[in-house]
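quick one, four chains, predict together pls
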Amino acid sequence: MSPRKFFHPDVADLTLHRILFALSDPTRLTVVSELMRTGECASGDLLAESVPRSTMTHHLKILREAGVTRTRPEGMRCLISLRREDIDARFPGLLDAILTHGGAESSAP
Amino acid sequence: MSPRKFFHPDVADLTLHRILFALSDPTRLTVVSELMRTGECASGDLLAESVPRSTMTHHLKILREAGVTRTRPEGMRCLISLRREDIDARFPGLLDAILTHGGAESSAP
DNA sequence: TACGATGTACGACGAAAATCGTACATAAAC
DNA sequence: GTTTATGTACGATTTTCGTCGTACATCGTA
């Protein structure tokens, strides 16, 4: 009956270099850009490209454990969202600066 | 007579994920914060901590090849500086957002 | 030229990351 | 309970990264 638990770091535990590392991968940058556009997104809908499930799970875990995203189980699926307020509170302007241009270049490795 | 050449990527070749990766290491984040404070810095002056020369060279190379810093030979030494205008031109607000809080947390891994 | 100072290049080593297949867990519907 | 859909956990493999010692290159000066 355990409704699937996911670890989310506390706002105070967010570190800049962990967040930057989480965003330093093209695949993860694409995911975050997509989340920026859609607000909340089912994990499966992020799977459009040629990325296997387990690989996407891996990337989502890194984003979540860095405090970039929040994962919320909803029935069979997992809804992913950006922790915008939390990151903005700790590192103001960071997400804005990154996501303004994140979508444009994330497809050009 | 070759006055030591260093590769610096063109502004158009800067990519977000490379820059973010370069900044995702605590040591390199400290270096960049220091450059932010001092403007231009001799490579040896960044060596204050317990980081061997060759390790610092490695980190400075990663920063330089990501387009974050510029290396200018000056006599025996190397002067390092931030490519602020270039990065600001390509990713406005990014350096500001990162460096505002970069110094405070880079010492807490 | 020789010397000392500053930095780089190269190689080796261990640690961590990226990828992905397979097996397992959860939830809804039948 | 069985089936199907969705996603995670685990393990194996390959690649990359971070660290650092040693050898080499460059620059100024004696």
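The CA atoms of residues 88 and 94 of chain B lie 7 Å apart.
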